[in-house]
Amino acid sequence: MKKLIETLKNIWSIEELRKRILFTILLIAIYRVGCGITLPGINPQMLALDNNNGGLLGLFNMFAGGAFSKASIFALGVMPYISASIFMQLAGIVIPQFAKMQREESGRKKMNQYTRYLTVLVTAFQASAYVAYLRTQTAQAIVPEFGTFLFWLSTVVVLTAGTLFVMWMGEKITDKGIGNGVSLIIMVGILARFPESVLQEFAARNVGGGGGLLIFLIEIAIFIAVIVGLILLTQGTRKIPLNYARRIIGNNAAKEVGGARDFIPLKVNSSGVMPIIFAQAILFIPATLVGFSQNETAQGFVRAMSDPQSLWYNITYAVLVIAFTYFYTALIFNPTEMADNLKRNNSFIPGVKPGEPTADYIATIMDRITLPGALFLAVAGILPGIAGLFGVTSGFASFFGGTSMLIGVGVILDTLQQIESHLLMRQYDGLMKTGRIMGRQGAGAAV
Fold first, then answer.
1. Which residues pair with 255 in a beta bridge?
2. Do both 111 and 72 map to the same domain?
3. pLDDT tens across 168-226, in order?
4. DSSP 55-100
5. What is the rounded distance in angstroms from the CA atom of residue 155 to the CA atom of residue 375?
6. 178 and 208, same domain (yes or no)
7. Total number of domains constituting the chain
């Protein structure tokens, strides 16, 4: 406790870090207040949207911090921005012109500007779909004085402005705050549901006695163990030894430089949470399409693919997560480019020739460590469904792994790493005695 209090004092004594933390808290508070402001033309007293704990709408509601089910001005959250960012990221891999732009500072600024323009288009499309959803679900909540066109126009404009404002706050948190702003906003929205979920689970276990409190404590212990496992999955790395070639500089007073040893940290889970998001999206598509059919067999398929506790759902989900882990890792990880960079920096892996042999060696190591990472990620993805089988309430079960906790753990580690870097820069002790905190690296960190 003494060490913790001393660390907090050190954090508060650094003026720049203190300002960054207060600035981040201010913008997050503004975001949470905005999540409670209802759209113009909606009567909040008659609003009866489902919380959407499952399905594609449930995923939207989770990323929006519950604003989706409240018909808030921030109902779409940063999902359009994330969709646009993923599209531009994939375009940078597939399209050579975009790939060239990503390697230059001016090109990256242009790519960011293109991402913002694309965000406006995606938001306008999703806002129109949200208007149709509101009319089918809670038509009685729409104020009659608002005509059809006026309600559509005002909702699209407000939702687009709300998403752009949230995107702006995320960028400001990244520049003047602490941590990745967009990820931090998503994490705060996800964790906002956590206290209520814990209270619901506690109330459910306390009904009628019968050792309910003991079961609740066991669930908390398992929950903590899951968090520890996710931290290990997020921070797990395979270190490849690296040497730097020796060079002689000067003629008369020759000086030998280089020869230092280092390592390349390859992350066990370099794809982050993206495989789970892709797998969930793929599972929603057939269920949505078959939902229009009246065939009993098709309806049974829909029920199986929509139930997180069903066997076929979890098997399909796990297979998709493993497949997308390999797919996304192959997209964001380029061993040939890494080998070229090592060669340009006069560094080499001991016992491996520079160039193509180095690229093959790195690719082989990456393939080997991706398999256990994919398996652990698949287990983390199906843990909420397994928790539901043991009677855990749906709200609390969603925190037993899955998208919620993977994002939460990753963003918290990133934030702690930012704080620790400020402490170490000013020669204070870090947050841990046993070593540095390692945040996420790679393209999947932002989501």
1. 249
2. yes
3. 999 899 888 887 888 888 888 888 888 888 888 888 887 756 677 888 899 899 999 99
4. HHHHHHHHHTTTTTTTTBTTTTTTHHHHHHHHHHHHHHHH-HHHHH
5. 43
6. no
7. 2
